[in-house]
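The instructor's notes for this session suggest beginning with a concrete chain rather than abstract definitions. Hand out the sequence below and ask the class to guess, before any prediction is shown, which regions might be ordered.
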Amino acid sequence: MGLDFDRFLNWIQEPPDCSTFRVNSLKYSKEEAQGIIEKSLDEVADQNGFTGRPAVQSCSLVDDVFIIGSWNRVPNFVEKPTGEKISKADEEVVVDASCGAAILRGAHLFAPGVLSMSRGMEVGQKVSVFADLDGKCLQGSTSYQGRKKLVGKGLVELARDALFNDSSDRAKGVAVRIKWTPQGILTFNFPSALGQLQNLPSSAASWELNPRPGDSVLDMCASPGNKTSHLAALMQNEGTLIAIDRTEKKCDLVRQTCEKFGAKSLVFCYDSTKACQDNVERVIEEGPPFSQNSFDKILLDAPCSALGQRPQLLNKISAGQIKSNPLLQKRLFRTAVNLLKPGGELVYCTCSTTFDENEGLINWAMQEFQNILVLQSPRKRVTQVIPLKNVPEEIYSKVQRFGPPTDNAEECSDSIGFFISRFKKV
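After discussion, reveal the predicted structure:
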């Protein structure tokens, strides 16, 4: 299958058409979680005067995930509780591209993200929120004439004077409460330990590794800890789960996520490319470096170009940066192979759509470790098999590539761009 670039470009600039929520099974059952989510969505509907709410459906492909539909299917989604059309908002607020992407995924607009706001804007006004597509809007400006994209509409909660002043004690919190987005994605409240809004492929990657209670498991590039906490849940907090990242700041994020979810893990600050050393005899609980053949299961969610993240309104990554990623990914992969026990399994995944970071790296691995690793078929295929030009069938038939949905797309296939593969060490 060839890739239509214009189609891809349109797809990458829009968010997925649904949200996916992974339940923290260490604390809640799926039935409990569904009831809490539906009640919260009902509250959103009541607060805004909407008739009905999106459906909350159990995902048949990934066991602990719910699919939450779009508010666009709710009849009077574009209306305020007063009956006034929120779509008639004339005043403008401008945010940067990353903030705009978050709003498209349902987030409210918080104070630090505001770049431009019309003069004299007050609390309660209806506004349209635009994302700056060129990265040229100056913070504190009253208008912006450059390229911009409508990302949401809502009501002002922090006036301009509170956001832009000479005081060091500037306002914090929600600046604009978002009431409408083009794809109909809105945020909702839930207990922090209930779970998280997580892209479907990210949840699928943990299930593909499928760690069991009692396993020794390594998450090589763990921050912010979302997959680490999921692995702990699949292990039912039984066994040894090691998480590594290379800075204390990132490791702190992993610890915070695991603590929030009640997930048991040992977190170490270390360079994962150096995590395996010859002639090292130590138990894994002591941390890296580890001896060879130390782990039953390894997750390598590799640093990558992130070109599959959606929506992307502005991307400043250089061609040189993209080309350098496979070099690091191969170093990490080699370390993972050395750390894996014979009979153990390695999942390699990225949130990229590039060939060199995905199928190209798998092709390299199958040649480099041809007598050591065997590429496995998916435990449960979440995507369709996608033939790619110059990719052998023995690769494309066994990996999972998430990308622009095909005409006969499966359940909630409109996800971010992602790639999952699994190897067994022989």
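Then share the key points. Residues 80-84 have pLDDT under 50 and may be disordered. DSSP finds ten helices and 18 strands in the chain.
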